[in-house]
Model the fold of this input.
Amino acid sequence: MFVNGCLWVLRSGAHWRDLPERYGKWKTVHRRFSRWCHAGVWERVFDVLAADRANQYLMIDSTIVRAHQQAASGKGGQRIRRWGAPEAD
Done:
C-alpha cells in the first residue's frame, strides 16, 4: 500500500495531503518516502528492477508522472529536489 500511495502521488501530481485514505495517513507515507530517499532505497529498487532485462512486464515511463500547474512557471531558478519532499524556505 505504501508504494502504491507513493506512485499515486507521483502519477497524479497531487500534494501529499491529497493522498486518498486507502493508502494510509499522508504524513506517514510522506515520512517513509523521505526516509527511503535519504537511504537510497528507491535507487536500489530501480537498479534491481532494471537489471532483469528479460522482464517484459516492467516499464518505467516518464509519461505517467504529471507536474503541478505551478511547475510550469519556473520561478526561482533551477533547484534539485527529491520528488514529494517539502521545500525548505
